[in-house]
Amino acid sequence: MAYKDQLLPREKVFRDPIHNYIFVQHHVILDLINTPEFQRLRRIKQLGPTSYTFHGAEHSRFGHCLGVYEITRQICDVFQRNFPSKSNDDGLWNDSERLVALCAALLHDLGHGPYSHTFEHIFHTNHEDITRQIITSPKTNVNRVLRTVSDDFPEKVASVINHTYPNPQVVQMISSQCDADRMDYLLRDAYYTGAQYGTFDLTRILRVMRPYNGGICFDISGMHAVEDYIISRLQMYMQVYFHPVSRSMEVILTHLLLRARELSNKLPTDSPSTPYMLMPFFNHHFNLNDYLKLDDGVLNTYFLQWCDNNDPILADLSHRFLDRKPFKSTKYNQQNKHLIKLMEDIIKKVGYNVKYYTDTNNSFDLPYDAYDPKKKNHTTQIELRQKDGSLVELSTISPLVKAVTGKQLGDERFFFPKELLSTDSNIEIFQPYYEKFQSFIKNDHIINQKGEQL
């Protein structure tokens, strides 16, 4: 057995507002936490621009990854105590899988970039792919630490994140409809945003989890705790993750980076305003080292510089993002979507470039995995174990979960500069345009000129 696979002489603890203490017992886990690649996660907010809506949401990917590790550690403890394997095919827990599960849990979000989902959309990166690259590249500190366990250990950890690891129990601990990742981010995000409806009974859920040949299921006695988790997740998406102000700030951030990329093509290589750390991404020729240099602070520093840029659009969007000047928005649907073109024409007439100052944003397209057991992937189901040992899918016996199963809740919004809602008589030249624009909006919905919501 490799030295780094052994336990620490005395366990290390991290104080945590969600789990109270996070216990580190293995050398390899502590060494992974201390790598530069993992420490970088301290500098990336878990919820990106959401802190502009919920000011407490300043927590980082670092804390979340530690939390996912801790929940996974607790699951392993429950399984080893209550369901230890006695033979190779009994479907119970083999504790030799503990270390690969703990490492995968700790490292699952290692590849997130600054302002994660917006950055991915603009530069066509994939944080899961980059996570696997960091784990398997012999050039990273993370890889060197993992290889102290065994030469093939990095590939094993990467395969858990890639959902190809042969033991479905390990995969489902990290990625399933009720996994350590989702349970930690819901509790953590609820705590830091102050959104109490995101809480649920983690202790009870862990108590009723159990392994079987196909992965992980839950004792039917714990059905109500799992129901509560599903509803809490739905509420967090509707009230926090899909909040229109957060989406507005993401729209501004997206347009800001798009404008910077467009202008970067015209910059001389020796210009002091050239964003050197972003150029590999603007040119679509970045490597892993380029990626690992980026965090929220790097982007914010460029935004500060761009506030004084000669390009008025880049400077204004930088100010709007840093100084929290979100766009306003209004709901639309397929029946009144054609009116957006008329509203954009008005926005052009008052001097805004609609490419950068308007957008449509559909929360149905945002990353939300509604509970839908009809999908073919087995991880989309939550299985309850009945007294006779048979399994039943949650929504078939829970009217509450059945009511929200497969439902794609959300809205479609048209975003535009707040100035279009101005009633300031000092800008008399634009006042008729503002009044015309405002006539399209009533009760947060686009309406026709007869005042009817279509």
From TrEMBL:
<dbReference type="Pfam" id="PF01966">
    <property type="entry name" value="HD"/>
</dbReference>
<dbReference type="InterPro" id="IPR050135">
    <property type="entry name" value="dGTPase-like"/>
</dbReference>
<dbReference type="Pfam" id="PF19276">
    <property type="entry name" value="HD_assoc_2"/>
</dbReference>
<dbReference type="InterPro" id="IPR003607">
    <property type="entry name" value="HD/PDEase_dom"/>
</dbReference>
<feature type="domain" description="HD/PDEase">
    <location>
        <begin position="57"/>
        <end position="195"/>
    </location>
</feature>
<dbReference type="InterPro" id="IPR006674">
    <property type="entry name" value="HD_domain"/>
</dbReference>
<dbReference type="InterPro" id="IPR045509">
    <property type="entry name" value="HD_assoc_2"/>
</dbReference>
<protein>
    <submittedName>
        <fullName>HD domain-containing protein</fullName>
    </submittedName>
</protein>
